[in-house]
Amino acid sequence: MPRLGEESIRIxxxxxxxxxxxxxxxxRLGDAGKRHFHPGFLGSEALSxxxxxxxxxxxxxxxxxxxxxxxxxxxxxFLIAAVARTESSISGFAFVLVRKMTRPGTFGVFVxxxxxxxxxxxxxxxxxxxEAEHMxxxxxxxxVQADNDRARRLYExxxxxxxxxxxxxxxxxxxxxxxxxxxxxxxxxxxxxxDRTSS
Length: 199
Ligand SMILES: CC(C)(COP(=O)(O)OP(=O)(O)OC[C@H]1O[C@@H](n2cnc3c(N)ncnc32)[C@H](O)[C@@H]1OP(=O)(O)O)[C@@H](O)C(=O)NCCC(=O)NCCS
Prior knowledge:
- The protein is an alpha+beta fold.
- The chain is 31% helix and 29% strand.
- The protein has a single domain (6-188), classed as Gcn5-related N-acetyltransferase (GNAT) (Aminopeptidase), CATH 3.40.630.30.
- It has a seven-stranded mixed sheet with strand order 1-2-3-4-5-7-6, with helices on both faces.
- The chain starts with 9 loop residues before the first strand and ends in a 14-residue tail after the last strand.
- The site of coenzyme A has 22 residues, from helix 2, strand 4, helix 5 and helix 6.
């Protein structure tokens, strides 16, 4: 059953014209959101060499032709990336970073304040995971801070399980936070035949 507001939000593959808006949307996250999700290549995050590489990867992967070439030739790394948009703006973003087809992909997601709790995060997650499975990835992993109950519930609902807990392993702005590493094996995933991307 559609949740409130879900019918007006579309999930689509990222396009080059979305990139500026994705960075702006990330900047709208509050302190807790940025503390929970800081992949290093979004918005005004402090830039590192990895962050610059991530920004480039996002640009290349947003180009349908560039992405098709990378995927067809199985030249990793690339991003499987999707945005959630209303008529006027982007309300969320998710990706699976594929470094090597034989290694687990790395997953990340955020939803802007005001659009949370309406199924947007779940739909974005389903969308990029479906694409990753379709491409032949066997596993996807992620890290989630131990106090991020909302995200953990979302991931558990998608079939991720905690495989490791690292005390004070996630450093952000001078503080260290406990995190869980979670893994999804597509072969063990509960059935997700329902297509919720076409509303
Ligand atoms: C985590 C995040 C992506 C979730 O997005 P969302 O659109 O709110 O998620 P959904 O509406 O799809 O809800 C996901 C699950 O969380 C549950 N949930 C919603 N609000 C919750 C809350 N306050 N506490 C615990 N669980 C909550 C929902 O019930 C749902 O579970 P269900 O499917 O079993 O009902 C979003 O809150 C966010 O961007 N947070 C900041 C950045 C972040 O933490 N990213 C993840 C880093 S690991």
